[in-house]
Fold this protein.
Amino acid sequence: MNISILTTKGITVMVETAYLPLHSDPRAERFVFAYYITIENGSNQTVQLLRRHWFITDGAGQVREVEGEGVIGEKPVLTPGASHSYQSYCELDTDIGKMQGNYTMQQQADRELFEVVIPEFVLTVPARLN
């Protein structure tokens, strides 16, 4: 597993990735990767995650942009010291790629919006590293 961690304005995003060979079909150029994200609120403000914005780049340099509300159908509220974890997946046409992006968060006290950077992380078939 690869791990990437980044903190923005007291909000830490940790990403772990894994290749899913049972869901992939390399002969059909279908490579499926899971990513596990933990968002931890290290600030002194209660915040809510409102939106996500992803940039997904495959090994051929093709970039796909994905935006939407919340994460996996949720808009979690994180009090100071709280965390929220979820998992999702990404399908690529190549055996290597990367993802990066940001979350739009809102401070609950004053409704101020701010962006939290999701660290860039690599999606790769383990055999490619040999």
Q: What stands out?
A: The mean pLDDT is 95. The longest strand covers residues 47-58.
